[in-house]
Each structure stands twice: as structure tokens, then as C-alpha cells.
Specification:
- The chain has 124 residues and is α+β, with helices and mostly antiparallel strands.
- Helix content is 31%, strand content 30%.
- The protein is built from four helices and four strands.
- The longest helix has 15 residues.
- The radius of gyration is 16 Å and the shape is elongated.
């Protein structure tokens, strides 16, 4: 089975960036997260203990977005690591972190990073 849950375009105000004003003033960010895992047991039982809570995943996003970083790549890496560490049943993670109005003199809807991680538990 290929199944996943997701949080679409969660909004945060955070202090990430290379430019000094970015760490002082902050900016708006949108984070989209999709987490793949087998939730067939939750489908059959209707028990919340058999799934991963959206609220718990959001709490991971909130915690990690609150930690200032220079690079969005670093933020994305921390988020994915925290999810895989907290939820070993996760098979893959898709994550996008977008700075809504990046200070680069361009008119665009945002700039950011996308990370797709396959949690291959067989590699040591």
C-alpha cells in the first residue's frame, strides 16, 4: 500500500536567512509536508493510536521553524530528521519550505527548498 498524510502550506513567521536583516526582522514562510507510511491498521480499526497525528507533525514543524538558521536546507534537514527519529514507521518524507517574499529583488510567489527522503531502514 502506498499511503500518506500531509499538512499543506502551514504558515510560520521565522528568522531564517543569510542577510543580517533576515535574522533580525524575520519573514513569512509556508511549509508543506507529506509523510508516507502504511496506515492500513488505522483504516481498519479507526484508532488514533494506529496512525501519526497531524497535530504531532505540526508540532515538529513549529519547533524546527522556531530555531533560526542561515539556510533553508538546514531547516529542512532538521525537520526531516526529527520526523524520522520520532516516527520509525515513516517510509518517506516530502517537504517544501518556502520563503514567501525573499529579499532578492524579484517578483515571485516565493523561493525555497524541496526535500524528498526515503527512509531506508535497511542501510546501516
Amino acid at each position: 500500500m502506498n499511503s500518506s498524510i500531509f499538512i499543506n502550506r502551514a504558515r510560520f513567521y521565522a528568522f531564517h536567512g543569510v542577510m543580517p536583516q533576515e535574522s533580525r526582522v524575520g519573514a513569512d514562510y509556508e511549509v508543506t509536508l507529506e509523510v508516507g507510511y502504511d496506515f492500513s491498521e488505522a483504516m481498519a480499526t479507526d484508532e488514533v493510536d494506529c496512525t501519526i497525528s497531524y497535530a504531532d507533525l505540526y508540532a515538529v514543524l513549529e519547533r524546527q521553524m522556531a530555531v533560526p538558521s542561515r539556510l533553508l536546507e538546514h531547516v529542512a534537514g532538521r525537520i526531516v530528521k526529527a520526523i524520522v527519529d520520532d516516527y520509525p514507521q515513516v517510509e518517506w518524507v516530502d517537504l517544501s519550505v518556502v520563503k514567501v517574499n525573499p529579499p532578492m529583488g524579484a517578483h515571485c510567489d516565493g523561493a525555497g527548498v524541496h526535500l524528498h527522503l526515503i527512509n531506508d531502514k535497511t542501510e546501516k
